[in-house]
Transcriptional regulator, BadM/Rrf2 family
Amino acid sequence: MKFSKATDYALHALVYMIHRDGDTVKIPVQDLSVALNVSTTYLSKVLTRIVKANYITSTSGAKGGYRLQQNWENVSVYDIVVAIDGVQTLFEDSFDHGSECRIQAAMMEAQENLISTLKNKKLKDLTV
Amino acid sequence: MKFSKATDYALHALVYMIHRDGDTVKIPVQDLSVALNVSTTYLSKVLTRIVKANYITSTSGAKGGYRLQQNWENVSVYDIVVAIDGVQTLFEDSFDHGSECRIQAAMMEAQENLISTLKNKKLKDLTV
DNA sequence: CCAATTAAAGATATTATAAGTCTATTATAT
DNA sequence: ATATAATAGACTTATAATATCTTTAATTGG
Ligand code: SF4
Ligand code: SF4
């Protein structure tokens, strides 16, 4: 019952990027690495997943870096969680007697709640 | 972002116990072990935590076993989660710039939601 | 008291996953 | 051509969950 550090890093990196002129500039991982105190290689690996998920873009080479997409305001915290950790099930039924099961149903309901809360939190809300 | 198998086992064991005459009988871990297909030693270790948390009682020796407390109907799923995994934070801020932080606030809100959903799910609801 | 039964405790082992590093490769600007 | 920067993949390390094994303590019934 815990989110990964990678998700934590990603959210912080994004917030940092937003504060640094939103989607208008490219920011090299070096900058982010210093700001968050996380190694460039690891952070780069994390951010690559956000690139793959299309919430930021990247350009290699000199003057390259990461840049937010124009629609960043609408990206939700849940989007980032999924981009990093994949779709997670809060509760992995070790037995699985089918969907009529009340334990599963209860856990599913809790999970749906959690997910919808996170879907309603947009990156914009983290930075106002 | 996942609950432990131990919690899964505990919930299933409790549901099994409820179905077997509620709080009127003592059930040895052997029975539960067979029902859930989990080793007696591990299941015993898990249930010991539920005993410590006072949601069931145990008696050693012949004719011993685990028995639900009379108030079992009011025990929530969250109570069991805490008994097994302890109080968990869904999101461990790697940086922690204080409580005014929006990332933390967003995650906390999601967490509160999740917890309150689980608090509202009573064991009784799992067995009706 | 004795034998059988059952939970608890503690040490240890196993497995799984996350976190992190390192090196090589590819892409870009000047 | 050179410096810069992301990507990929192999690899290591750290951490926690899962599980087993063995010993001890408690309880029953003869
Ligand atoms: S939770 Fe319900 S369905 Fe899943 S194993 Fe337990 S009883 Fe079966
Ligand atoms: S989440 Fe907010 S408080 Fe926590 S580290 Fe990031 S900026 Fe600081």
User: Anything to note?
Assistant: The first helix of chain A runs from residue 5 to 19.
